[in-house]
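Q: I'm a student working through a structural biology exercise. My instructor gave each of us a protein and asked us to get a predicted structure, then write a short paragraph describing it. Mine is BioF2-like acetyltransferase domain-containing protein. I'm not confident about reading structure output yet, so if you can add a plain explanation after the tokens, that would really help. Here is the sequence I was given:
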Amino acid sequence: MDYHQDRFKDASLMIYQDAILVACVPGNSVGEQFYSHLGLTYGGIFMKSDISKEFMKRILTELIFYLKFNYLAVQFRWQPQIYNQHHVDTLDYFNFLDFNTFQSLNNLHVDLKADINISSKKTRGYRNGKFEKMRLEVNNDFKTFFDKILIPQLSARHQASPVHTIAEIELLSSRFPDQIKQFMVFEEKEPLAGVIFFKKGQIIKSQYAAATIEGMNKSALDYLYIEATKDFKDQNCYFIDYGHVNENDGTINRGLQRFKEELGAINQPVYRSQWNKV
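A: Happy to help. First, here is the predicted structure for BioF2-like acetyltransferase domain-containing protein. I'll explain a few features afterward.
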């Protein structure tokens, strides 16, 4: 998290037993409020996978006592259950100790271990020849993707910019070359679409995705996601996390939801919890 440390006041916590790290909580503070780190896609509590339920409760009790003693308000953004086997028990215990769930996001993922039900609407490019001249390439040319596809499309369609700069993505890629993969679709030498995937263990997270106007007209993202799904399935990955489909006000973007569902994605809620002293 050090690459964007200038944007957040770090308040991360580490929990030890006999000098052995057993859990950590990435976090930042704003005044007297604690947040599950706002610079991360997902937050929550990261614990060793082999801890018992009783020990987990001891960790959570100490953590919640510390947070309530030191802050006036606490907010957690939890991970999808596919990342964390302790997820349900953790959320239930937080609710038991006076936290309330104030938001539920529709988060979609593809289960690569099961049969994937991809809509015929997504695969028709193979039948009508639209995908015939497309070429999929895995590369680290982040500048081309950002400058020619991602930044123009985010600006035009959402009046937004990528959370990461090109320099930050290049830095992350240099540090974690096996965990950050960029897939791009070309027709001859012309880039049509791109997706940057983050890999955590056997789970793949679709982090950035965009297509040019021509790429959208030719359904280049459909082709990219279908081919990438085949690739990740062949690598024995477990899931592809496509992220949530909620707008900033919590409403569901039905078009985005339909796009992901037609790629075989299913919904798994992602929750946010909070506690206030007053």
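A: Here are two points you could use in your paragraph. The chain has two domains: 2-105+271-276, 114-237. The mean pLDDT is 93. It's a good idea to check both against the output above yourself.
Q: Great, thank you!
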